[in-house]
């Protein structure tokens, strides 16, 4: 059942649906299996001695925006499973988008009337629970700061969630001369890294890293399988110079999700997801091909990789290949294989056609749901 157009417009109704669904979620609480991986860091002993910027991390694009029972399979959702399930499975990067709520930063997608997954600090608190259970893991969160909130507000969310104690603090507003190794970050207990767009670095809030002073990324509004490339899209001041950026110890981010247009609205393209998320190298539009192209062009492995619907096809295999990890330790995908949020509505079908109607009614102008 899809939200009626009135419930799209009514955040209270939406919040009610979310709250009700949270109470009856079918997702099993997966047993924690990562805490006793011996000497593994981020699922592999071979990664411990690598520097933070020498590792490739698979990330969930709009990781809080779910297309599952909790949102009535919202078309605004980019993922079938939530961030805890993603971390259990082996993802170590979570991307999110915040908008100004009344008193908090809210995890909304394009508009809080469309999809509101609650306050950032509550979501960070749930990630913190996972990190407490998994002490050998380094996790990165990247936030698109749509509400133009100042760094102090992100810092407040870090403190309120309890994750601040684990937060990596930058020494200055640009990449360090040398990033620490994963082992050093784990031993220091500073193994949570937060980047946000549109904030300024301040020594008062050193755990809030301005994304584009530390990270460059490839284009993100890709509409065709042939459209993925390794050109520096943001920050614009680094245009066409990935190698300069890498020399300055910038981290790289590969956006690898494809959109399709329906009635003037761009939505995650589920019809091509098997190809887009494929680890196969040589296939047009696959993650494997894109990562290999960037690695060749940059002469360095890509660091951050964002995909939609990470449980589809085998994006972790593509990332393992970059990291030269052959046998990852302690990944738990039981919540995925036993089926949680995913259902047939994840495919474009009759239900979606109705939902498109609701989306078209919601927006007065064409919009890209990125
Ligand atoms: C994901 O869902 C499970 C089950 O409802 C819940 O325990 C967990 O806190 C959720 N994680 C996040 C990050 O929302
Ligand atoms: C802000 O408060 C109003 C009135 O209490 C509420 O309806 C709305 O959902 C809130 N918005 C957000 C983004 O929290
Ligand atoms: C990469 O893609 C972007 C966006 O489509 C495009 O503007 C740019 O020209 C492409 N770069 C190359 C080298 O083709």
TrEMBL record:
Q: What keywords does the record list, in alphabetical order?
A: Signal
- What Gene3D superfamilies does this protein map onto? Phosphatidylinositol (PI) phosphodiesterase
Coiled coil region boundaries: none
> Which N-terminal stretch is annotated as signal sequence?
1-26
Q: Which GO terms describe its biological process?
A: lipid metabolic process
Q: Which SUPFAM superfamilies match?
A: PLC-like phosphodiesterases (SSF51695)
Which is one GO molecular function term here?
phosphoric diester hydrolase activity
Among InterPro entries, the record links this protein to: PI-PLC_domain, PLC-like_Pdiesterase_TIM-brl
Query: Which Pfam families does this chain map to?
Result: PI-PLC_X (PF26146)
Keyword match S-adenosyl-L-methionine:
no
- Protein name stated in the entry: Uncharacterized protein
Q: What is the lineage of its organism?
A: Eukaryota, Fungi, Dikarya, Ascomycota, Pezizomycotina
């Amino acid at each position: 059942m899809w939200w009626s157009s009135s419930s799209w417009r009514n955040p209270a109704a939406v919040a009610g649906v979310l709250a009700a669904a949270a109470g009856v979620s079918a997702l099993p609480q997966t047993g924690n299996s990562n805490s006793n991986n011996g000497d593994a860091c981020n699922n592999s002993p071979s990664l411990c001695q690598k520097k933070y910027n020498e590792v490739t991390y698979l990330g969930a694009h709009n990781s809080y925006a779910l297309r599952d029972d909790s949102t009535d399979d919202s078309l605004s959702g980019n993922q079938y499973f939530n961030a805890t399930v993603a971390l259990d499975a082996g993802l170590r990067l979570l991307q999110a988008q915040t908008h100004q709520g009344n008193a908090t930063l809210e995890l909304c997608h394009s508009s809080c009337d469309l999809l509101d997954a609650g306050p950032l600090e509550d979501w960070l608190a749930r990630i913190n629970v996972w990190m407490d259970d998994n002490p050998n893991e380094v996790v990165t969160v990247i936030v698109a700061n749509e509400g133009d909130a100042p760094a102090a507000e992100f810092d407040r969310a870090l403190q309120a969630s309890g994750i601040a104690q684990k937060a990596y603090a930058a020494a200055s507003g640009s990449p360090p001369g040398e990033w620490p190794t994963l082992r050093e970050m784990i031993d220091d207990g500073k193994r949570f890294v937060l980047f946000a767009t549109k904030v300024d670095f301040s020594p008062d809030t050193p755990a809030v890293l301005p994304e584009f002073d530390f990270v460059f990324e490839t284009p993100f509004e890709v509409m065709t399988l042939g459209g993925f490339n390794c050109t520096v899209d943001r920050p614009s001041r680094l245009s066409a110079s990935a190698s300069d950026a890498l020399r300055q110890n910038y981290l790289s981010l590969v956006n690898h999700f494809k959109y399709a247009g329906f009635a003037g609205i761009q939505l995650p393209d589920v019809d091509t997801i098997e190809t887009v998320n494929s680890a196969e190298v040589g296939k047009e539009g696959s993650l494997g091909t894109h990562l290999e192209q960037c690695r060749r062009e940059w002469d360095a492995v890509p660091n951050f990789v964002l995909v939609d619907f990470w449980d589809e096809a085998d994006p972790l295999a593509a990332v393992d290949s970059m990291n030269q990890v052959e046998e990852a330790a302690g990944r738990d995908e039981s919540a995925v294989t036993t089926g949680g949020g995913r259902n047939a509505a994840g495919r474009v079908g009759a239900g979606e056609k109705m939902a498109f109607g609701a989306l078209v009614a919601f927006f007065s102008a064409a919009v890209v749901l990125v």
